[in-house]
Structure formats: C-alpha cells, structure tokens
Specification:
198 residues, mainly beta, SH3 type barrels, seven-stranded mixed β-sheet, six-stranded antiparallel β-sheet, 1 helix, 15 strands, 3% helix
Length: 198
C-alpha cells in the first residue's frame, strides 16, 4: 500500500484524494495542526495546492514541522491568527488523483479500492468495497452486500489474498468476514434464544 489515504469517489470522472484534515489551531499566529493521510506526513503539501472538500477554496500549504501523533504544523497564507485557524478545524484537503505518482507494482492507493467487487476465495460474490478504516488496530475494509448489510474484514494479505485492479475485484477469505447481524451463513451462539423457566 503506497499511502493511507482517505478518498472521495462520488464523481469518478474527477476523483480527488484527501491528503489530510485540520484538527485545530497551534499557537496565536495562525498555524494549523493537520492529521495527514500520506505515507510521509510532510507530503501533504508536495502535490501542489490543495482544495477544500466542496472544491470552492484552494490552499497552498507550507509545512513547518511534525507535532507528534501523526500530525504536522502547516501555514496557509492569509491565516494570520488563532481565530481564523480555528475556523478551519475539520477542513479536509484534497488533490486530483492525477497529481499523485503512479504506485509501484503490487501497490495501490486505498482510493483505488472503493467500489471494487468483493468475492470469496471460492468465487462467491459478497458485495463491494464501501470504505477503508483504521481505528488504531489496523486497516479494515468495509463491504456492503446487495441487501445493504455491512461487513468488515482485516486488510491483511491473509484475509485479503488478492486485489485485481484491472478486473475491479478484491478476493477475501470468507471466514475472515464479519457481517452485521452475525456470520453470513448461520447465526452464532449469541443469536440463539432458549426458553427457560426460571
């Protein structure tokens, strides 16, 4: 995987990738704390001006230094004080997918997985990739099936042995999928109800 990036895909003709999000202000002079989704945090400003989520604003990011916890300090011209910086909290920074370098063989951007078909190792259709998450315990693929049920699978080579971007398909081990409402084929012991008198 080249980068741990969030993504946007509503308009596949103009795919943009989120490189970071403003988490707050730093100091009194308008510096921003930014949580990056790039492999190298300082690269958040390496691909030219970034756009706001709605695409109406453009920012030229000047990276100052790392702050820890995967965050960096960024300066944007015109953001001169803490109040203006705080107003940008929650702003996501996007660039067009075309500005990013092509990944090496057997590597990809997480954004490239969104919408791919998900099949089991025996070829059974399971759904499509809806999202990628990392809540601190490792990357997870979120899958939605035709009925709208959500499932997750650890994004490891064991649980996800094949990704074929040309075929637009991700292969997963069925046993590794966790579905909302219980396992896909039968209810677990926690779903069984037994009548008891007492």
């Amino acid at each position: 995987m080249v980068a741990d990036m969030d993504y946007e895909s509503e308009n596949q003709g103009a795919v943009r990738i989120c490189l970071g999000v403003v988490t707050g202000a730093h100091g009194l002079h308008g510096l921003l704390r930014v949580r990056t989704f790039t492999e190298v945090p300082e690269d958040v400003g390496a691909y030219g001006p970034v756009q706001s989520e709605d695409g109406t604003r453009e920012y030229d990011l000047k990276v100052r230094n790392r702050t820890g916890k995967g965050q960096i300090l960024v300066h944007i011209e015109g953001v001169a004080n803490r109040d203006v910086a705080e107003a940008l909290k929650g702003e996501h920074f996007y660039v067009p997918r075309a500005r990013l370098p092509e990944p090496d063989a057997d590597e990809f951007y997480n954004a490239d997985l969104l919408g791919l078909d998900v099949v089991s190792s025996d070829g059974k259709a399971l759904g499509t990739v809806r999202a990628l998450h990392n809540f601190g315990g490792g990357d997870m693929l979120e899958v939605v099936d035709d009925a709208g049920r959500l499932g997750t699978v650890a994004f490891t080579r064991v649980a996800v042995p094949e990704i074929n971007l040309l075929a637009r398909r991700v292969t997963v081990e069925s046993a590794a999928m966790l579905w909302s409402g219980g396992p896909n084929d039968k209810a677990g012991p926690w779903d069984r109800r037994e009548d008891t008198d007492g």
